[in-house]
Amino acid sequence: MIDLSHSALILVDIQNDFLPGGALAVPDGDRILEAVNALARRPFRAVIATQDWHLPHHCSFDAQGGPWPAHCVAGANGADFPKTLRSGPITHIIRKGVLQERDSYSGFLDNDRATSTGLDGLLKGLGINHVVICGLALDYCVMATALDAVGCGYQTDVIPEACRGIAADPKATLETLEKQGVRLKSVNAF
């Protein structure tokens, strides 16, 4: 087993709007919850959840010319964590996409690649040097978060069984992650 005293589990965007029946549902997104809940029971130094947290007329919404339907509106049920997610172990929440004029796929940086969400500072402040990432959607927000984690110098693992993507086949995304230094692990590795 890996010593998790300097490790954080990052739960990316496990929110009602990304689950079946949600405004921007990831196919089979609910199938990750058992694996995610199993990971959250491990003795990580921190369990950090990211939350898409958009204003009602966010730039990413199709009504404003963006690519996505309205989703994860701040304070609405769609932005909440599902009741089936064990939220007790969550020690911190990082909200992203909070500015009207800018989106944020990564848990670390807004899409302008300059504005920090505060996640890097939080991890450094906690003495974290290793992150384990899971969540939704593998080919967007999970990948962006993992690549930024590597870029910030963290040893980075992604747990494919605890992720689902928009694309039916995750192979290309997983290959991209590995080429950039992300390790693919199973839940049982922890």
UniProtKB/TrEMBL annotation:
- Region forming the signal peptide: none
Which biological process terms from the Gene Ontology are attached to this UniProt entry?
pyridine nucleotide biosynthetic process
| EC class name | hydrolase
- What Enzyme Commission number does this protein have? 3.5.1.19
Ranges for domain Isochorismatase-like come to: 7-179
- The question of whether Hydrolase is a record keyword is answered with yes
Under the heading InterPro entries, the entry gives: Isochorismatase-like_dom (IPR000868), Isochorismatase-like_sf (IPR036380), Isochorismatase_Nicotinamidase (IPR052347)
Instruction: Please state the pathway this protein functions in, per its UniProt record.
Output: Cofactor biosynthesis; nicotinate biosynthesis; nicotinate from nicotinamide: step 1/1
Q: Which GO terms describe its molecular function?
A: metal ion binding; nicotinamidase activity
Q: Report which residue ranges the record marks as coiled coil.
A: none
Q: Does the keyword S-adenosyl-L-methionine apply?
A: no
Keywords from UniProt, A to Z, are: Hydrolase, Metal-binding, Pyridine nucleotide biosynthesis
Family classification: Belongs to the isochorismatase family.
Q: What is this protein called?
A: nicotinamidase
- The protein's organism comes out as Gluconobacter albidus
